[in-house]
Amino acid sequence: MYLNTTPDNTWEDVRSELCDVAVTALVALRTLTPDAREVFTRHLDAVTRRSLGT
């Protein structure tokens, strides 16, 4: 879906597309990384620290 070229998209369409992207990314991470949970947790911690300026 191309949100900028389809003016009749709803917020529900946008939320659905975001969920599709998140699921696809997590499946890809798990497929490529046996310890996906640890990799994701470590990355999320780093993003949290960076966003909080700590």
Short synopsis of the structure:
The chain has 54 residues and is mainly α. 72% of the residues lie in helices and 0% in strands.
Describe the structure.
The chain has 54 residues and is mainly alpha-helical. The chain contains 2 helices and no strands. It has helices spanning 11-32, 36-52. The longest helix is centred in the middle third of the chain and has 22 residues, at 11-32. The mean pLDDT is 90.
Tags for this model:
single chain, 54 residues
The total count of strands amounts to 0
Approximately how much helix is present in the residues?
Answer: over 70%
From the spread of the alpha carbons, the general shape counts as flat
Q: Note the run of SSEs as H and E.
A: HH
Number of helices: 2
| Strand percent estimate | under 5%
Q: Low-confidence parts lasting 5 or more residues at pLDDT below 50? A: none
Question: Kindly state the mean pLDDT as a whole number?
Answer: 90
